[in-house]
Design goal:
- It contains 13 helices and twelve strands.
- The protein is an alpha/beta fold.
- The chain folds into two domains: 164 residues, Glycogen Phosphorylase B (Rossmann fold, 3-Layer(aba) Sandwich), CATH 3.40.50.2000; 172 residues, Glycogen Phosphorylase B (Rossmann fold).
- A six-stranded parallel β-sheet has the order 2-1-3-4-5-6, sandwiched between helices. A six-stranded parallel β-sheet has the order 9-8-7-10-11-12, with helices on both faces.
- Helix 1 crosses helix 13, helix 2 runs parallel beside helix 3 and helix 5 packs across helix 8.
- The radius of gyration is 21 Å and the shape is globular.
Length: 369
């Protein structure tokens, strides 16, 4: 089988790109006789009359119709839905991974809703990353049949992890005695970075440090609070969204930390949480989306209730009582349990394949199709 993957992120499988999800999934599927190629264009019409493709797999839908004006959004919406219907009628297998319930930034919410309802009607299979996501899928879009619960895979292998914690801290000007909280990832409104900084600065521990490392998303308008520069315990390593974070910098940030804090206001899945677990870092996160199913019961972090007035602050304080080496070991074990081979096997069922093909297919080279 040949699958065309509409990633909505990098246009190819080059490991230089920041999010390795598509490449890792493709490598795992190749071992089971499935060739996955990342679409080089979001224009679905380029592919619906191809005879060499058997399945269309969508990850993020929003890039197919996103626009800065309603007329443009409507035009792209109609074009995408029409192409999807043609693909369905021509016998392509259609699969959607509901990575997010809705886009994090919605210009035209009713379009977002209608297009998801239509996608759920046409998709032969929908993938949810956890049971909670599957429940939301049923509640919001009425989809209950052919729903496959497949977790997000680990991010251990794509990132170098060779620097010691001592070296990492020295490069950042941090002391070995500091207790370092880390936020890592794109800085966007829904990720709660501003409330995290404000909450952290109320802590009285002089040895506490908050390291904020990531790219400021182009949609982020709020800015960081004044306390980010007024409190010397806050270490900012933020950069413009157009600037990529070198892979070696990522390992420096993670290995310099004691715990990773991801105070999302709203989310389903988190690549940053998966990445942090792979580096053996306990994760502090709210009970939203798939995060409780990822973290609870594994001894690899703290899950707090996000709606209480002091939930985040209490979690930050509670982190000081963790057995960090033991929690870090559990974090690594949790990441290792999310193997891409097991995820590929589950994905085969979403593709309508009951068993692996006899011969692995080579990975596509270059920039996709």
């Amino acid at each position: 089988m040949k699958v065309l993957f509409f990633w909505g992120g990098p246009g190819n499988m080059d490991p230089q790109f920041g999010n390795p999800y598509a490449r890792l999934l493709a490598e795992a599927l190749a071992q089971h006789g499935v060739t996955m190629a990342v679409a080089g264009s979001l224009n679905l019409w380029r592919y619906v009359f191809r005879s060499d493709i058997q399945a269309l797999h969508f990850n993020w839908i929003a890039p197919h119709y996103a626009a800065d004006s309603l007329p443009k959004a409507l035009l792209q919406f109609v074009s995408f839905v029409a192409a999807l219907l043609v693909a369905y009628l021509r016998g392509y297998r259609i699969v959607w991974t509901m990575h997010n319930l809705y886009p994090h930034e919605m210009a035209f919410p009713w379009i977002d809703r209608v297009i998801r309802l239509l996608t759920c009607r046409l998709a032969h299979a929908v993938i949810a990353h956890c049971q909670h996501a599957a429940t939301l899928l049923a509640q919001h879009f009425g989809r209950t049949h052919c729903v496959h619960i497949i977790p997000h895979g680990e991010f251990i292998t794509p990132y170098r992890n060779t620097i010691s914690p001592e070296q990492a801290r020295e490069s950042l000007g941090l002391s070995p005695e500091d207790f370092v909280y880390l936020f890592v990832g794109n800085i966007r409104a829904y990720k709660g970075v501003a409330p995290l900084i404000d909450t952290f600065t109320t802590l009285e521990a002089e040895d506490a440090r908050l390291l904020v490392a990531g790219r400021i998303h182009r949609s982020y308008q709020g800015g960081l609070p004044a306390s980010a520069t007024e409190d010397s315990r806050v270490v900012l390593k933020a950069r413009a969204y157009e600037e990529s974070i070198p892979a070696d910098d990522m390992q420096i940030y993670l290995n310099a930390s004691d715990v990773v804090v991801l105070p999302f206001l709203d989310t389903l899945t988190s690549g940053s949480a998966i990445l942090s677990l792979g580096f053996g870092r306990p994760v502090i996160a709210p009970a939203v989306g798939c995060l409780p199913e990822l973290l609870r019961g594994y001894g690899c972090g703290i899950v707090y209730e996000p709606h209480g007035q002091h939930g985040l602050k209490h979690a930050l304080q509670l982190a000081r009582t963790l057995d960090i080496p033991r929690a870090g070991q559990r974090a690594r074990q949790r990441a290792e349990s999310l193997s891409w081979d097991s995820i590929a096997r589950l994905t085969l069922a979403a593709y309508g394949i009951t068993q692996s093909g006899p011969t692995p297919n080579p990975l596509p080279q270059g920039k996709g199709l």
